Every structure is written in C-alpha cells, then in structure tokens.
C-alpha cells in the first residue's frame, strides 16, 4: 500500500474522511483553471466535486502560472488532496477529486494552450490574485507597460501572463472555428467580469484589431463574488491531517465552514449545475461584490495592517482584542453599510454578525502578514472606492482613513519595535523608495504615497479632507502605536 494519498489509497481511508462519490476514470475535462492556489482548491474545485457524480463532463485541468510547487505536491497524488474544514467544533476532512491534472505553465506552454483550445473545454476559470490581471488597479485598464504584457505581446505564442494565455487560446479557437470558452474570474476585483473583459479586449486588440472585436462580441465574462477564508497551509496542518488519513498529503487545504459563490448566469457553452452545490446564480453580481469586497475584504485589510503593527500574528488573535472588534463593527456599520445598495431580502445584519464570528474563528491561523500582502493592488476596491462614495456625500471616513494610514505605516518596512517587516507587493521597491525618502516624517510619507496614481487615482490626492484625515491617523500611529490608536479611537 502507498504511503501517499492517491487513487489507490482512497479505499483504505478511515470512514470519517469523505471521498469522491464518482468514478474518477469517467471524468472528462470541461474546465481549465489558471492559478491553482489554495483558494481555488477550497472553493471552485469543491463546488465542482459536488456535482461531478451527476455530470462528469466538468473535470478540471489546473495550471500554475509560476511555480511547480502545486504540481510537485499533487502529481504523485493523482491530483487528489484533502479539504479540511475547521471551526471550534472540530475538523471535517474530505478528499477532493475534481482536479484531474496539474500543469506548470512556464514549462508546458504548448500543453496548456492545447487543452485551452480543445473544444471540450467550455470554461476557463481564474484565481491569479489581483496582480495577475496586469492591470492598473486605480483604473482597471490593462497596464501595457507591465513586463509580462510587453513580453506576451512580442511573443504571443509563448505567453507568461493570464491575459496572454487566454487571448492566444481564443485566437486558436477562432481560427479553428471553435466557439470561445466562457472566462470566469474568481478573484476579488471590482466588477471582476467586466475588468477581465476590458483587459482581454485591449490585449487582443493589440495583437490584432479583429481579434479584439471578436473578444468584445463573442467572449462571455460573467462577474462572480467568491468567498471563503483559506489561510496558507502549515506543516502542523500537514502532520495532523496525515495522522487521520494514515497516508501523507503533501498539500491539503484548510478552510472555514462558510462558503459563498454568486455568479452571473452567462455561459453560452454550458456550465456545471453549481447551484446544486449551493452557488447562487443572479443577473447582476455587483451589489454582492461590493458587499463582500467592502465589508469582508475592507475589514480584513484594516485588521491585517493594524493587527500586524499591534503585534498580533493572526486575525483571530487581533479579534480577541475587543477594541479591534469595536473598530471593525463601527467601520462596517457606520462607514461601509450606507454605501451598499442591496437587493430586497438581503440580510446585511446577519452577514456582518457572521463576519465578526468568522474573523474570530480560533481554529484558523490566518496570518495578518498574509492578508497584508499586495496592498497596492487591494486598497482601491477594499477601501478607496468606499471612501470616494463617502466623500461625495460628505459623510465621515474616520475608520476607513485609519485603515489607509495603517497600510502606509506598514509599508515603511519597519515595525513599532524597529524590526523589519517583509513587505510583499509588486510595488514594494517603489513603496520602499518613498518610505526611505520620507524618513520619520508622516507628512512626507503620506505625500509620497498619495502621489502613486496607480493606487490613489487622480482625484483622491487632491481631496483635502481625505489626505488630512489619513495624515492625522498616520501621525497617531507613529506617536501612540497601533494598539493605543485603536483602543483610544475616536473620529476626527
Ligand atoms: C483576504 C482574502 O488575503 C486576503 O487579502 O482578505 O483572501 C479573503 O480571505 C477572502 O477574500 C475571503 O473570501
């Protein structure tokens, strides 16, 4: 018997571990996924696994656009991995079988393009994180100076980026008379379907104006709202899970019980019946997207920067401090909720209370440092859009501004005790330069960062109420530290 999770090991797993309810040999490929990180494996791959018994046409070929790590872990496991759902009540384990093959894009470019161009592939899903769209976060337009885009436009048959792969595969399909696949983005971007369509259209136009028209007219890019908290897997998780399985799983994923997926129902080539697994199909995702990005992710980023600076390792540790709970509840109730326009029947009160409980889940070790990553790509849709709405109606922005100030304090790269912060961000070098130039001056730091228009746009740096509040809170963060700033928080 194998000492590793794989098809042969399934039959001998202990009874408490749920396993695929279908014969994996009958599964065909209907979906290609780009960006096979933990989030995809704890979310879309699970919804798909749920419907596979009823409809085996939707197996997933999943590609890593960069590192071979996921391939190395899952290839010896026949694509199988364990989903661990953790809460205070305990842990439920389930083996997911919907991923039939993992491809490492940089070394198997042609294989990936081939499967994307195959008529059986009807949907290309994406979780490539915010920065993977190679767009300008403030405007949502393709960043034509992005090194991967410059490369992919010059060598369009050998792409590196997600837009490069998708457009080349669409070009091949068009040439072969195969209808385009539906492009389903599952990243936390505002109007994510519209954003990916804008980026793909521009990229295609630059390759060939006719291809650009084809993308505009023929390619469906429904928007989605995706939600499930999935912290990075730790070695402790691996050990604990292997202990139960009786075999090793090199890369299980650990998540919470909550999961939500709201999708616009525009799939000209068909789709799995994901509604049978709990997904919600609607005609317009935008209100849900705003709700989630602004309430969940806006709070998450605020907690991550302030919590990290206050010395808290995880979100749950941060939320064990009542002052942070008060701040976040105030942020949601007073500053975000008035900007949301929900359809009748949506219950924001329960949603927000559930969010507080989800953030408090002590069984999840979601590091503040992990969420703090890539702030330059996240701030616009998580905090700045809300701030713009509030400014235009003259409403208070205190807690939102504190969130932005905490990000500024964080990206200086030095914490409150003088230790280095490992700031991960595609703009890290530029942020560092501003911070170094500013020295200990809050005023200079704020001014330098506001000038980055890819983040703050052309409008916010000129809004004195906004810049004044952020500077005031940044000064407090320097003087009092994050913990006291939060516990003594008052508006203005
Ligand atoms: C988090 C998200 O890392 C982050 O930036 O805010 O990944 C968050 O956990 C998910 O969006 C929850 O659905």
Write a concise keyword list for the protein shown above:
46% helix; 21 helices; alpha/beta; Rossmann fold; 492 residues; single chain; three-stranded mixed beta sheet; N-(1-d-carboxylethyl)-l-norvaline Dehydrogenase, domain 2
In short:
With 492 residues, the chain is an alpha/beta fold. Helices cover 46% and strands 11% of the residues.
Description:
- With 492 residues, this protein is an alpha/beta fold.
- It has two domains: 7-282, NAD(P)-binding Rossmann-like Domain (Rossmann fold, 3-Layer(aba) Sandwich), CATH 3.40.50.720; 286-487, Orthogonal Bundle (N-(1-d-carboxylethyl)-l-norvaline Dehydrogenase, domain 2).
- It is built from 21 helices and eleven strands.
- The protein has helices at residues 38-42, 44-52, 69-74, 109-117, 147-154, 162-175, 192-207, 209-218, 235-245, 286-309, 315-319, 322-336, 348-360, 368-372, 375-392, 398-410, 428-438, 442-450, 453-456, 464-480, 482-487; strands at residues 29-34, 59-64, 81-87, 90-96, 99-104, 123-126, 182-185, 224-227, 253-255, 260-264, 280-282.
- A five-stranded parallel beta sheet has the order 5-2-1-6-7, sandwiched between helices. It has a three-stranded mixed beta sheet with strand order 4-3-9.
- A hairpin with a 2-residue loop joins β3 (81-87) and β4 (90-96).
- α15 runs antiparallel to α16 (398-410).
- The radius of gyration is 23 Å and the shape is globular.
- The structure holds D-mannonic acid.
- Residues 188, 227-229, 296-297, 300, 370-371, 378 line the site of D-mannonic acid.
């Amino acid at each position: 018997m194998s000492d590793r999770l794989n098809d042969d090991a399934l039959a001998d797993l202990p009874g408490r571990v749920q396993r695929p309810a279908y014969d994996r040999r009958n599964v065909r490929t209907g979906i290609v996924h780009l960006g096979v990180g933990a989030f995809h494996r704890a979310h879309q791959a699970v919804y798909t696994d749920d419907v596979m018994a009823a409809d085996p046409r939707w197996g997933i070929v999943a590609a890593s656009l960069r590192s071979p790590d996921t391939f190395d872990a899952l290839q010896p496991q026949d694509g199988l991995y364990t989903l661990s759902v953790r809460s205070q009540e305990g842990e439920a384990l389930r083996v997911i079988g919907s991923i039939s093959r993992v491809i490492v894009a940089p070394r198997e470019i042609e294989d990936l393009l081939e499967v994307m161009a195959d008529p059986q592939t009807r949907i290309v899903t994406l979780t490539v994180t915010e920065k993977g769209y190679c767009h300008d976060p403030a405007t949502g337009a393709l960043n034509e100076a992005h090194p991967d885009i410059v490369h992919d436009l010059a060598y369009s048959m050998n792409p590196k980026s997600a837009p490069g792969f998708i457009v080349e595969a669409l070009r091949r399909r068009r040439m072969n008379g195969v209808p385009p696949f539906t492009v389903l983005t599952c990243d936390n971007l505002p109007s994510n379907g519209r954003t990916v369509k804008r980026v793909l259209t521009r990229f295609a136009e630059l390759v060939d104006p006719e291809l650009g028209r084809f993308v505009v007219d023929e390619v469906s890019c429904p928007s989605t709202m995706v939600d499930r908290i999935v912290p990075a897997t730790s070695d402790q998780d691996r050990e604990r899970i292997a202990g139960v399985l009786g075999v090793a799983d090199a890369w299980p994923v650990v998540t919470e019980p909550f999961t939500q997926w709201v999708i616009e129902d525009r799939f000209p080539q068909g789709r799995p019946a994901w509604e049978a697994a709990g997904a919600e199909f609607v005609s317009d995702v935008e209100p849900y997207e705003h709700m989630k990005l602004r309430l969940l992710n806006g709070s998450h980023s605020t907690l991550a920067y302030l919590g990290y600076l206050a010395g808290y390792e995880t979100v749950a540790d941060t939320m064990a401090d009542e002052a942070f709970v008060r701040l976040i509840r105030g942020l949601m109730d007073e500053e975000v909720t008035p900007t949301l326009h929900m359809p009748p029947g949506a219950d924001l009160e329960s949603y927000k209370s559930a969010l507080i409980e989800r953030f408090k889940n002590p069984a999840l070790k979601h590091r503040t440092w992990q969420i703090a990553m890539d702030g330059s790509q996240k701030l616009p849709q998580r905090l700045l859009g809300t701030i713009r709405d509030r400014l235009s109606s003259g409403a208070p922005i205190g807690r939102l501004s504190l969130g932005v100030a905490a990000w500024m304090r964080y990206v200086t790269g030095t914490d409150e005790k003088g230790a280095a912060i490992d700031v991960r961000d595609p703009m890290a070098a530029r942020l560092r330069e501003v911070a170094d130039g500013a020295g200990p001056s809050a005023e200079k730091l704020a001014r330098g960062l506001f000038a980055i228009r890819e983040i703050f746009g052309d409008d916010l740096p000129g809004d004195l109420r906004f810049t004044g509040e952020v500077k005031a809170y940044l000064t407090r963060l320097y003087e009092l530290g994050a913990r006291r700033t939060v516990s003594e928080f008052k508006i203005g």
